[in-house]
Amino acid sequence: MAKRASLKSGAPADEPVAVISEQTGAPASKLERLIHERLRLGILSALAVNQSLTFNELKKLLDTTDGNLSVHARKLEDAGYVQCTKSFDNRVPRTEYRLTANGRKSLERYLDHMEALIRAMRQP
Q1: What CA–CA distance (Å, rounded) separates 81 from 73?
Q2: Which element (helix H / strand E) includes 94?
Q3: Distance set, CA 31 to CA 34, 36, 38, 47, 113 (Å)
Q4: pLDDT tens digits for range 13-52
Q5: How far is CA 16 from CA 27, 35, 91, 116, in A?
Q6: What does the pLDDT look like over 111-120, one tens digit per residue?
Q7: Is the N or the C terminus of the chain less surrounded, counting Cβ atoms within 10 Å?
Q8: What CA–CA distance (Å, rounded) separates 96 from 77?
Q9: Cα separation, 107 vs 81, whole angstroms
């Protein structure tokens, strides 16, 4: 069962309550920052439901710029969450991304944590 940490007496009423996840026992502030960023979460989510996606497919799907996608994809690649393969298709560079087993495991753990936080916040 998820728990809500009580506010200290005298704390402002609008101060957030720290939620403890049922499954991980980690507070909401301990979400994996690498995945929690919107574009990186989008990349991982898109790759989780597709065998692979090209750079241009991800760019269009996520409605982002070349530079922004490159930076965030590189962070995920450096963490071992995505695999990047570069090739040529009729002399045109082609960059393709796939979700690694470690990336899928980390995304599932992140989603489990988020689901536990949502359940905890909806408890009366």
Answers
A1: 9
A2: strand 92-99
A3: 9, 7, 13, 20, 8
A4: 444 444 444 444 555 566 788 999 999 999 999 999 999 9
A5: 12, 22, 54, 17
A6: 999 998 888 8
A7: C
A8: 12
A9: 9
Q: What is the mean pLDDT of the chain?
A: 82
* pTM of the full structure: 0.75
Give the separation between CA 123 and CA 72, rounded to whole angstroms.
35
Q: What is the pLDDT of residue 27?
A: 58
User: What kind of fold does domain 3-122 have according to CATH?
Assistant: Arc Repressor Mutant, subunit A (1.10.10)
Domain boundaries, the chain: 3-122
Distance in Å from the first CA to the final CA of the chain: 12
Cβ count near 113 (within 10 Å)? 21
Q: How far apart are CA 111 and CA 31, in angstroms?
A: 10
Residue 106 has pLDDT above 50, yes or no: yes
Angle subtended by helix axes 55-62 and 66-78, to nearest 10 = 110
12 contact partners, CB below 8 Å, separation of at least 6: none
